[in-house]
Design a protein that fits this description.
eight-stranded antiparallel β-sheet; 6 helices; elongated; alpha+beta; 215 residues; Pnp Oxidase, Chain A
Length: 215
């Protein structure tokens, strides 16, 4: 992706942490039918270092699986907070008029080769790890053992595992770093005034970058 140096994030702990926190990705590959994309929850393992491994699953009926056979190259796109930025929030706009709107966002692109995993033991372990990660905050976490065994077996037969051994990760944190400090402060204030969750999340990222803190 186009990634000017001021927006580039290369720290593996930040990239992995963001991917784990968001927990979902769009997997894109190219096959006989052209480009195909599937949206999936993901489980990220840091091994093998340094890039790690993404594990996910597709519905067995998903035709995208056909283009993943044989170690196809896959791009997993993880989209973080994003928000519109009005030039009216920039003090410099009111002084010179030389400002235009923009869009702030966080994106991680993880590149890897696909391996199909179509055995019940792998799928059961994957689903247990995935749900365990997301159920952790529940008062009474759901477990696979809570459902009848024959029901779980049927559900596992309806999915196919996909494992991506990552070879490269790109991170882009476009959070107003290219603006002078007063404009960035104006962006934080403008986003916070809007008050919706997406704007507040982006306001925090702009404020962290302004203060030189780690995302």
């Amino acid at each position: 992706m186009y990634n000017p140096p001021q927006f580039r994030e290369e720290r593996i702990e930040v990239l992995h942490g963001t991917m784990q926190a968001i927990g979902a990705a769009t997997l894109v590959s190219h096959g006989p039918q052209g480009f195909e994309a599937t949206h999936v929850p993901i489980h990220l393992s840091p091994e093998p270092a340094p890039w790690g491994t993404i594990r996910c699953h597709f519905a067995r009926a998903n035709g995208h699986l056909q283009s993943l056979a044989g170690g196809a190259d896959v791009l997993a796109i993880v989209q973080g907070p994003q928000a519109y930025v009005s030039p009216n929030w920039y003090p410099s706009k009111h002084a010179t008029g030389k400002a235009v709107p923009t869009w702030n966002y966080v994106a991680v692109h993880a590149h890897g080769s696909a391996t199909i995993r179509d055995d019940a033991a792998w799928l059961r372990a994957h689903v247990a790890a995935l749900t365990g990660r997301h159920e952790r905050g529940q008062a009474l976490p759901w477990r696979i053992e809570d459902a009848p065994p024959e029901f779980i077996e049927g559900m596992l037969r309806a999915i196919v595992g996909v494992e991506l051994r990552l070879t490269r990760i790109e991170g882009k944190w476009k959070v107003s770093q290219n603006r002078p400090a007063p404009d960035r402060e104006g962006v934080v204030a403008g986003l916070r005034a809007q008050g919706d969750p997406a704007s507040l999340a982006m306001a925090e990222l702009v404020a962290q970058a302004l203060a030189g803190r780690t995302p």
